[in-house]
Amino acid sequence: MIKLRKSREQGHANLGWLDSYHSFSFSSYYDPAYMGYSVLRVINEDVIEPGRGFGMHSHRDMEIITYMLQGDLRHEDSLGNGSTIHAGDVQRMTAGSGISHSEFNASQTAQAHLLQIWLMPEQDGLSPGYEEKHFPLAAKHNRWCLIPSREGRDNCLKINQFVDLYASVLDQDVTLDMTLDSGRSYYLQVAQGRLQANGQDLQQGDAIRMDGETRLDIRALTQAEVLLFDLPPHHIPATQPI
């Protein structure tokens, strides 16, 4: 079964300094039909204006992944970490028993464009942690690149959940496929560009979720960047809006 989620149907908040689209219920956007998918709880596409950002705030019991598309983001946290991540970088933060952090556009002239992804961890109360890694274009170019996994295999980031997240940057007219496990759930998110996936026409911000499928076939209609989540079987999380 394949279900299409168009970007124009998502939640949207424009605060002037932040333009954000919400794939699932978040903040003031609430839709009981979109509380999450499997252990995937949040995908926010954020554009942050120069020099602006989120002051110090706290999280707990969530695996938080920041996928940079454009620009520079300055991160500081209560564990003592401080760094600036750039396009091609991916950051993983285990909120666990509690962590505070801030995120600011490190540039005074250019926007920062990113996807922030929240996954429910395999258990609550984990020790907070932080990790970041650069994934060069060559590793993602017209191929799948594993970004995080539970085991941290193939030199990717390590997350505390049974999830594999892949990324690819495709040239126009390139095709890419993957054999799927019909007992798992999959979520495909278009980060940039336009493509066809299993017969669905998708553009930036669009997504499809797949249950019981055995194959994914993609053709890029323009240069495109795409994320694919390999998830535990879908259930509807009993959570409230974040």
From TrEMBL:
Domain of life from the UniProt record: Bacteria
Cofactor binding note: Binds 1 Fe cation per subunit.
One Pfam family, short name: Pirin_C_2
Keyword line: Iron, Metal-binding
InterPro entries named among the record's database cross-references: Pirin, Pirin_N_dom, Quercetinase_C, RmlC-like_jellyroll, RmlC_Cupin_sf
Keyword Metal-binding tagged: yes
Cofactor list: Fe cation
Residue span, Pirin N-terminal domain: 8-119
Ligand binding (Fe cation): 57, 59, 101, 103
A GO molecular function held by the record: metal ion binding
Residue ranges constituting the Quercetin 2,3-dioxygenase C-terminal cupin domain according to the UniProt record: 146-231
Keyword Metal-binding appears in the UniProt entry: yes
Family: Belongs to the pirin family.
Protein name as it appears in the record: Pirin domain protein
Native organism: Methylovorus glucosotrophus (strain SIP3-4)
Taxonomic path: Bacteria, Pseudomonadati, Pseudomonadota, Betaproteobacteria, Nitrosomonadales
